[in-house]
Amino acid sequence: MSQYYNPKRTRNVFDPRSKEPFRLSRSKIDLFVQCQRCFYLDIRLGVGRPSSFPMTLNNAVDLLMKKEFDIHRVKKQAHPLMKKYGIDAIPLTHEKMDEWRDALRSGVSCLDKETNLILRGGVDDIWVNPKGEFIVVDYKATSKDEEITLDDEWKIQYKRQMEIYQWLLRQNGFKVSETGYFVYVNGKTDKEAFDAKLEFDVTIIPYKGDDSWIHEVIINMKKCLMSPNLPEATSNCDYCRYRESAGTSIRELYKDKTTALAKNSENLSKPPKEKKRTKNPKKDGGIQNKTIF
Questions:
Q1: Tally of domains within the chain
Q2: pTM over 0.85
């Protein structure tokens, strides 16, 4: 079994009989929006989607970006990029910054009392403007020749990510700016040689978030988890389509094998057919064996 995938998880599985608050990460909220069946299989039954291998290069970029902004955080001054893009803010100094950036163990969290669900998510960074509003910042790394935008259809996930972070901070009583920023680092490929270094262009893209959809999604997540029934497959979910196609092919394979075995067993159970001895018409008085079927 792969060390990266547990096909049947027993921890962090929702029990509808439990009265204890249940923790759900930001990524699980997004999973529910993408496909309720995959969400149910993961959180209620403990069968999650296989995860991709760790993106170590992207993680390294994230870590270095955080270190770079931390230098200016300590000095309580704006990063040159913020000045370049006319952003009137500085990196936030707060006693919980390390906790809020720890996506694996803590992050920004809140208890939704209506559903008894604890929602959480780890931010990359938070800036603060002169009004005291928190500004959610997310680092992204890529390498492409065309201009970087948020227009790609699949980047709706990035937008939801930003909005969930904004919502979590608001649930903790903080004033949060509607506008967050994606700090995009784009690896250059136009150099003549690698020379043991990779250079990046850095772009800051503003995004005005709208978290009005989140409360209804949380209510529906709880209803889904409390239900004994598996949700319908989502038509545009590749994982659902794979499971359906694989299941159909496997059933057809075993159906064909079962049919073949049944026919073979039926033939073996029949008594041997009787043989008759008849005269050979071509040879006078000759006798030959002839099997009559």
A1: 1
A2: no
